[in-house]
Amino acid sequence: MTRRNLYFYHKKDSEMMEKAGHLYELAEKYGFTIVNDFKQANIIVSIGGDGTFLQAVRKTGFREDCLYAGISTTGTLSMYCDFHIDDTSKMVEAMANEQIEVRRYPTMEIKVDDESSFYCLNEFSIRSAIIKTFVMDVFIDNLHFETFRGDGMIVATPTGSTAYNKSVNGAIVDPMLPCLQVSELASLNNNRYRTLGSSFILSSGRSLTLRVIQDGNDHPTMGMDNEALSIQHVEKIEAKLSGKQIKTVKLKDNSFWEKVKRSFL
Ligand code: NAP
Ligand code: MN
């Protein structure tokens, strides 16, 4: 397969335009066509950090027929950014390689009140927007698993396991395992309220349903990756792994665990 139409996603301020300009020239020199409409692209390159990569994937609609690549401007490589902006030789090497290896990342599908559905690459998060505790009934498939009372929950993909999920002591999950990890945000546990307390991992094919108890605190803050959901009131959220996978460039000496080591150890 030849992928030659390249779309760059980045901030448009003058500093970034100058940095990106060099990459535009480089790509053209190697025979790529730079397109202004991402729908015409078969390679989408974000320039920034992991947050920019998440936005690039979201704004271009989680395309399965595209290869995504992240170029870091932050001085270090990160989980989604395999190239550093100053390391053009590595980019040239990847561009010149016809048989490029592809890495696939699972994504999650979220359905709110049986209506709107959304994709997430990192996680879906839901939390109380007020000081009062927030209550949800938690179902795994059709099983009523627990009644949660506390601040909220995070449902993370494997690649999202190193982000918000990690900050609440969730496990790091190899993206070769298609699954979802559910983690609590400050659950209340006493003789009246009981939750599992630890994170749990659901295999692909399972679904997690959260039913928000309509007790007045039913306008939680919900987020998909780095974007807030504009839906205000909610009763039911369903989360499952989606059939869609995000493809990125696989480079040598850059396995998921090498990235984890490089980022955290
Ligand atoms: P941000 O608030 O600037 O991001 C927080 C940090 O998370 C940034 O350093 C970001 O990297 C990093 N990050 C993003 N995705 C990651 C991943 N998959 N693995 C490891 N680190 C990751 O917002 P943002 O840059 O737009 O990123 C959005 C993400 O922030 C959300 O999806 C959520 O996971 C995370 N978040 C974390 C907390 C927390 O830990 N308490 C709270 C809210 C949100 P870059 O600097 O390279 O962008
Ligand atoms: Mn960021």
UniProtKB/TrEMBL annotation:
Subcellular location: Cytoplasm
GO cellular component: cytoplasm
Keyword match Metal-binding: no
Family annotation (InterPro entries): ATP-NAD_kinase_N (IPR017438), ATP-NAD_kinase_PpnK-typ_C (IPR017437), NAD/diacylglycerol_kinase_sf (IPR016064), NADK (IPR002504)
Cofactor requirement: a divalent metal cation
Record: active site: D50 (proton acceptor)
Residues the entry annotates as binding NAD(+): D50, G51, N122, E123, R149, D151, T162, A163, Y164, N165, K166, S167, A186
Main localization (coarse): cytoplasm
Catalytic activity of the protein: NAD(+) + ATP = ADP + NADP(+) + H(+)
Assigned keywords, A-Z: ATP-binding, Cytoplasm, Kinase, NAD, NADP, Nucleotide-binding, Transferase
Keyword ATP-binding found: yes
Transmembrane spans: none
Coiled-coil ranges from the UniProt annotation: none
EC number: 2.7.1.23
Cross-referenced SUPFAM superfamilies: NAD kinase/diacylglycerol kinase-like (SSF111331)
Pfam family, one: NAD_kinase_C
GO biological process per UniProt: NAD+ metabolic process; NADP+ biosynthetic process
Gene Ontology MF annotations: ATP binding; metal ion binding; NAD binding; NAD+ kinase activity
Family assignment from sequence similarity: Belongs to the NAD kinase family.
Role summary: Involved in the regulation of the intracellular balance of NAD and NADP, and is a key enzyme in the biosynthesis of NADP. Catalyzes specifically the phosphorylation on 2'-hydroxyl of the adenosine moiety of NAD to yield NADP.
Protein name: NAD kinase
Species whose genome carries this gene: Bacillus infantis NRRL B-14911
Organism classification: Bacteria, Bacillati, Bacillota, Bacilli, Bacillales
Gene designation: nadK
